[in-house]
Design brief:
Radius of gyration: 23 Å
Helix content: 25-40%
Structural class: alpha+beta
Length: about 375
Amino acid sequence: MIPLTKAQKEIMAEFYGFAPHKVIFNKTERGILWTAASKKATLDLGPIRAKCPALAHQIEKSYGLGGNIQSAVFSECVYAQTLANMMRLDTFTNCLEDRAFLPREISAQLKSNNLVPRYAYSNREKSRMLIQAGGCKGIDSALIAAADPNIYTIEFKEPKAKASEADLPQYQEDGKLRITPSFLEKYPQYERMLTEQKDLNFFEKMGSNEKHFSPESVDIAVTDNYVKKYADVVCTEDKNGYLVMLPANQLSLWADIAGEIRPAGRNHSRAWTPNALKRFIAEKGGNIDDSVVTINKSALSARKERGGNGKISGYKINSLFFVYACNCTDLGDRIRFGLQDVQQLKPTIAGKIYFTKLKYNNVKRYYFEEGER
């Protein structure tokens, strides 16, 4: 068993010294709010702001910018506010609007941990703060005492979540998985998973995800992700809706974990395998004349805008290639578009965690009532 670090012992002892708290918006309530926010429905933000000001601000910001808000952002705000409530950090500050709120030494601590402050929860004296933060190289939050050089780093995760997900290197015209030194340098936690699937071909696998990995390789991908991020603990909610804190390097004790390679992730760029693209278009009966494609709509699948309004945003050639509707000329039963307008979805690799059987009392008993770990 991996022993707890000094920081893990301290923050977990404090956490489990408080009475258990249910998260302030449960998963069903968050789902209703997220659906409404995704559709840009009219919401009364007053009660939301009174209960969870960070969440209200995130919704407000998404409406103003016109973008979609991720469900994980809802959970992060709710978990952070619940943790702040437990620790009696009653003063909320939006650091995006009040950048002078944080003392210089705390700002320096956050910067050294690759954290950009978003929201702060503090006591009235500002002697202790929970900083909800962001940054592609950092964790979600940090608990800081102004007079203490120690910093406790916290990651928030939903009960069903990806520990991390990375775009894989672009494959070539043969469709075979590429494992590059630069990728492994950036994401060393995935080396064993990739080695186990070194013969994977994305053109043969498209339409389904690869999920066959050894438990050891997935454990490395999940655990080392948080080691790399320097997270001390992970906060999630148990099956009864209570906030739970776990050591980041012992998640496999409490969660079912799985690995996944997706031939088509969310990110995309201009098609980088033009020969394969032309072959797929030909297989669907499309015609290419001087890099201009004409093809029957019935040979393609429509992509719908997120938010449930049903509007067609594009057309899928297959699960790997699509073209935006705005780049197409509608010819009735057919559409026309340029090859240069076709987008190719990037493959991804991820470690996934499922805390579906987690119970607050079991965790507390394991670490603090059955002897020190």
